[in-house]
Amino acid sequence: MKISLIIPYHNEEENILNTLNLIKSQSFLPQEILLINSSSSDKSSEIINKFSKKNKYLNIRNLFANTKNPSDSKNFGILSSKNKLLAFMDCGIYFPENWLYECMKYCKSENVDIISAPIKFKANNTFDAAATAQLWGYGSSHFVIPGSIIKKKIFKKYGLFENRRAGYDLIWKKKIIKNNVNILKIKNLNIKYENFNVADNSRNLFLKIYLYSNASAKLKAYYKDKIYICSTLIFFTILFFNQDVGLVLIAIYFFFRQLFFPVYKARSFQVFIDYPLSLIIMFLVGFIIDSARVSGYFKGYLCTK
Hints:
The protein has 12 helices and 11 strands. It is of the alpha/beta class. Helix 2 links the parallel strand 2 (32-37) and strand 3 (60-64). The relative contact order is 0.13. The mean pLDDT is 93.
């Protein structure tokens, strides 16, 4: 079966060449490679064009359609693709040379609609380990759109991604899971971020979560924004009228952010073994994440049409 590889990019001149070389080194090559320019302002497109001329056999199509977000760039790639199988990848992610080969083994099965090489969340420093533990679980693996091969008929049946900068993938995954779409996760095949999973310092962490939360606020079938806003309003109301109860809630919150969430999400204490100093900053990192989310969600509701 023939496959189209779809990769959106925005100002990726530092990563794009490495991504192209990872594609080139695949033991199974896609029949076409669609790189969708999400309104880049750097030299990413020039790098792609030079690489394409030197490697014409790869059949690279460098497309630009005034797309702004990863979601509408992916959608444009889906609509522009020529094949029944669609592979997705992002820049800045490492994928092994047998990624497509291993996934393609299962594509002929009619009982499998999505084949995924899950992303493995390790870390590159203590701060990133703590942030990873709070968000996904240190050492955990998750099904994500990058690294997946999806049959084109799934998009025809359940629709494309909602045009948003963030959160669109979560909503789409919920939709297909709700409709019992068959997803096969290849456990012994993982992709990973080449640099940091989340961020290497508090400023970058706050900014990243804030922008993501602001972009995903009011997204259809997305409830985290409502939960955060309501919880924040309830907490400050309780703290205003009854400080003793408010202090108890703060203590409970500290326990959950300091220990419960990191251990529960990973189903282990491994992050504290690999990065002992993460125990010192774990609560602070969790608090930064929640503060950024609340700020982003409130702005999304108050300032977004």
